[in-house]
Amino acid sequence: MTDRPSQRQDSTANGSTANDSTANGSTANDSAGGRVSGLRTRLAAHLRAIARIAQWEVSRSAGTVDRKTIALGLIGALVAVAIAAGAVGSGVAIDQDLYRVGIDSDSAYYDAVEQSSVLEPRPLSDPNVEIVVSNTHVSVKETQTSRAAYQAFREAVQSYNERQMAREPNQSAAFPVVVDLQYRERGALVPPGSRVDGGSGDGTGVGGGSDAVGGSGDSSGTTGTVGTDSSSGASDGDGSVGSGADSTAVASADDSSLGASSLGGMAGIFGGDTSGSPASISPPFPFASLVLAFAFLVPMNFVIQAYGSSILNERVNRRGELLLVAPIAPGDIVAGKTLPYLAGMVGITVVIAAAIGGGPVSVAAVIPIGLLFLSSTFVGAMFARSFKELTFVTVTVSVFLTTYTFVPAIFTNVTPIALISPLTLVVRDLGGDAIPLGDFAFSVGPILVAALVLFLLGTGVYREEDMFTQRSVPLKFLDALDSRISRPRSIATLSALSIPFVFIAELLAIAVLFVLPVDVTVPLVLVAVAIVEELAKSMHIYAAFEKARFARTVRVSLLLGGLSGLGFFLGEKFTAIVQLVGLPSLTLGQAAFAPSGIGIATAAGLLVAPLVLHAVTASVTALGARQGKSAYGLALVGAIGIHVVYNMQVVNALG
Amino acid sequence: MITVENLRKTYGDFPAVVGSDFSVESGEVFGIVGPNGAGKTTTLKMLAGLVEPTSGTAEVLGFDPEDPAMRRKLGFLPEESPLYEDMTPRSYLRFFADLYDVPRDVADERTDEVLDRLDLEYRDRRIGDMSKGMKRKVAIARSLVNDPDLLIYDEPASGLDPLTTNVVLEFVRELRDEGKTVVFSAHNLFHVESVCDRVVILNRGEIIARGTVPEIRAEHGETTYHVYTTVELSATDGFPATEPEGDRFVAEVADMATVEEIREAAESAGGRVADIRTDEASLEDIFLRLARESPTTSAAEGGRGRS
Fold first, then answer.
1. Are the Cβ atoms of A49 and B100 closer than 8 angstroms?
2. What is the mean pLDDT of residues A450-466?
3. pLDDT value at position A603?
4. Residues B20 and B67 in one domain
5. Higher model confidence: residue A454 or residue A598?
6. What is the largest CA-CA distance in chain B?
7. A388-444 pLDDT per residue, tens
8. Is residue A14 less than 8 Å (CB to CB) from chain B?
9. Considering just the CA atoms, what is the radius of gyration of chain B in Å?
10. A53 vs chain B: nearest CA distance in angstroms?
11. Among B218, B238, B265, which residue terminates a domain?
12. Do B66 and B181 have their domain in common?
């Protein structure tokens, strides 16, 4: 004991901890400058530790990969980049120069042939051609190939003509009749009692007037639309072909909340136009950009394999114990081990974006996906008991997150629900669309926060007592929740932090259910919402009771339930972001988010009701949780029942 | 150096450590002895800040054990010391030296010296290709890379061959001679007797004896006297019957008064006491006896298997 003062001085000399500096200079901490200096010292120490762990992770991981593997990986990456670049540069054209056309360079059709990717112009004297074009006559052989070449020639000429027409200054003269294809919400498209294929109109109606498409229609009143305009009730133009004096309607980024966006100059490889002459329009299915966007996801699935192995490797045979006893915070260890993999993902993302023509928005949208891949894998690797379980975890993460991000992006131009995936932003960015900040925040925010919360939970169990135990995954999950609970108010914090997961789960429920009839999906969504929210509000309370964190009394249970409800209610306010993307305009969006009292004007008076609901139901589950697993299960069912009844009442009240 | 008061750790309902109190002075080798599951490792990990006590306090080097400043002055060697097998001893030790902010040249000099003393030649070979003894030496070198004041070694010689065990135990003595404080656990009591200044004996999480080895022996040990006579003696109230052993007879008694009674009885029978030999109780004997006598302090049987 006699040598304590000198030991503290030694520690201070190392200058690595706040406590050291506190012990050495109390006056410094009294001043703001001292606090800033202390913070700076601590931050520098953290960054230094993270950098060292990261550097070590890179060198150690590099040591486990042989040169052949590195070479093969590099070749693979180069090939992928080359393919992606080729796809963008020339379109996806496996049929490049498929048919040879004998044609004179003076022919009026020469430019059409020359500009076609499928056709290759050859001199008239060339005998090895499928068709010959001379003046206005086309010679076609009696072969299948020649007939196909003729068909391709016809399409090439048609496309050429349309391009020429599009360049005309007077578009009304060029396109006296234009069909503008827009995707509409089915509930609005199909009035009760009518059939989609039947149509209540026969195209005889005349569009125009007020065209309230999805609440943000073209106010010029000149847009004719194919489809039903029943949502506004202002027009009876079922099945009508709109026309007007200046009906050069072109779908643009701002004319529809449903994202029937312009495909810009890349329309040719993006699956066709959504407006133009009737012959040229096709559904706005962004096939090529989807394929290209998928390229961002592929490397992530490989990176998480290496990352998961690295994390689990620390846990096998207690290998990481010595890092824990070093003067480094667990968070620094996790950050240092994660940083190289994140940097790798970012690097690959930037390269891919550069290769396929994605901008900074694409990169910024993909990085949170990468973080979610890494954080999910991290938590999985912290919970897995063996490499076998880790394999299951990484495959699950790969499949689920790839599906979650890719499938919604397919509906980029169909529904705003697609925005639950940041990949939708990538698809739109590749299509040349401007991405509103609200859309970006809606799409990226929950995923980013969810990733950070997962890292937080995983880091909570990155300690000796949890890392090396062979407990089942559910028990480890409870340990992770409990690791973040130190006092009652932690319960409120955890409830608030669960919001991103609740948000993602509810959006996923909407995305899965929206194909069903509204009469069925609304009740299902209300039940799903109740289940998700009650679980989110109660699991950590159950974990805390199981770990004997709090006394199992009625009073404590009610306190924890109230705090959980309050934290959840406050956190739920963040879901107001759905307002920014027009999701509440969907019936399902209203069902999922309106009952919680967020944002809908008519629900403003019910502001307090959700708080009461969350506090009451969380208290019910807390009372069950204090008595053990079975009682918790029963209480959870009861709380869900109360929540569903409440949701139904609110939906009915809102009409 | 270390003060522990009423330190307690439970895992669920299982008490791994039950209210320990002890202190460790600077410059001594302090042993924590006990069978598997006694709470040795849990105690050491609480001192190293790896395991959070359920209750009680521990002050190590003047700090709370979880204070990173304490860890800068600590060298910890766990019972199992799995290393990063793709690294070489040199790169491994440099990495840990970096974490402790030890300059590269100082770290190299320090680790070279330690590895010389531990007689480890292969410093640039993959750790994965090394024997268990070599790996243990690397682990010991790692515990010294920051030139700590306090060393906590958990079973440092466990599973090593006798030659390597001697090297390790001799190294611990040298560390003490250099003024380091060493706390180490063992269930091999010979190791403890040979190097420890003071020990505590743990059983089922509870300290059942403490002090220097001679003090413990004096307090808890028994001396057995083997009395050899030239004549056979039958049992009396004072001593047991002698048993034949070669051309003599022997009785085992626990005190000198009884020895005197035997001498008198032998002479009365026309014989004499030919020889008297004494057996002092070893620490192991004392430990086994104390463990048997120790009341069951918990429902430890079948509990969580931490030692």
1. no
2. 91
3. 53
4. yes
5. A454
6. 81
7. 888 888 898 888 888 888 888 877 776 677 888 898 888 888 877 788 888 888 888
8. yes
9. 24
10. 8
11. B218
12. yes
A316 CB neighbours in chain B (<8 A) are 82
A-to-B residue pairs, Cβ atoms closer than 8 angstroms: 92
Residue A181 has pLDDT above 70, yes or no: no
CB-CB neighbors (< 8 A) of B3 in chain A: 1
Helix (H, G, I), strand (E, B), or coil: what is residue A621?
Answer: helix
| B99·A465 Cβ contact <8 A | no
Q: What is the CATH number of the domain that holds B200?
A: 3.40.50.300
Closest CA in chain A for residue B52: A465
Interface contact flag, A4 B149, Cβ < 8 Å: no
State which residues form the domain around B195: 2-73+148-218
Closest to A259 in 3D by CA, of A281, A238, A286: A286
When divided into structural domains, chain B yields a total of 2
Chain A residues within 8 A of B142 when measuring between CB atoms: 322
Strands B2-11 vs B55-60: parallel, antiparallel or unpaired: antiparallel
The whole-angstrom distance between B162's CA and the closest CA on chain A is 25
Distance to chain A for B133, nearest Cα, Å: 17
Task: For residue B155, give Cα distances in angstroms to A316, A554, B43.
Answer: 20, 47, 13
- Token pair, residue A285, equals 């299915």
Which region among A100-104, A466-470, A516-520 has the lowest average model confidence (pLDDT)? A516-520
Query: What is the pTM for the complete model shown?
Result: 0.70
* In a shared domain, residues B154 and B196: yes
Q: Is B278 exposed, middle or buried (0-12, 13-18, 19+ CB in 10 A)?
A: exposed
- What is the CB neighbour count within 10 angstroms for residue B80? 15
User: Is B126 part of any domain?
Assistant: no
**Does A451 score more than 90 pLDDT?**
yes
What confidence tier does A456 reach under pLDDT thresholds 50, 70, 90? very high
Sort A476 into a burial class: Cβ within 10 Å, 0-12 / 13-18 / 19+. buried
- Does A6 contact B at CB distance below 8 Å? no
B304 domain residue, yes or no: no
Which band of pLDDT confidence, cut at 50, 70 and 90, is reported for residue A601? low
Q: What is the DSSP letter of A50?
A: H
A326 with B100: Cβ contact below 8 A: yes
* Alpha-helical runs (H) found in chain B: 40-47, 68-71, 89-99, 104-117, 132-143, 162-177, 189-195, 213-220, 256-268, 283-293
- pLDDT tens per residue across span A37-89: 888 888 888 899 999 999 988 887 776 666 666 676 676 666 666 656 555 55
| pLDDT of res. A365 | 92
Identity of the residue in B52, B78, B82 whose CB atom sits nearest the CB atom of A465:
B52
Residue A18 has pLDDT above 80, yes or no: no
* B162 and B210 both lie in a single domain: yes
SS3 A91: coil
Task: Report the distance separating Cα B176 and Cα B178, nearest Å.
Answer: 5
B101/A14 touch (CB, cutoff 8 Å), yes or no: yes
Task: Round to whole Å and give the CA distance between A251 and A261.
Answer: 6
pLDDT digits 0-9 by tens, B79-117? 887 888 888 999 999 999 999 989 988 988 988 888 888
pLDDT at A37: 81
Considering chain A, what percentage of its residues have pLDDT values greater than 70? 67
What are A304-338's pLDDT values in tens digits?
A: 988 998 999 888 878 888 899 898 999 999 999 99
Q: Tell whether B205 and B265 lie within a shared domain.
A: no
Looking at residue A650, its amino acid is: V
User: Is A144 in the B-facing interface, judged by CB distances under 8 Å?
Assistant: no
Most confident stretch, A64-73, A245-254, A273-282 = A64-73
Q: Break chain A into its structural domains and give their ranges.
A: 99-167, 171-284, 286-484, 490-655
Dihedral angle sign, alpha carbons of residues B8, B12, B13, B16:
negative
User: Do B205 and B241 sit in the same domain of this protein?
Assistant: no
Residue B143's identity, in one-letter code, is S
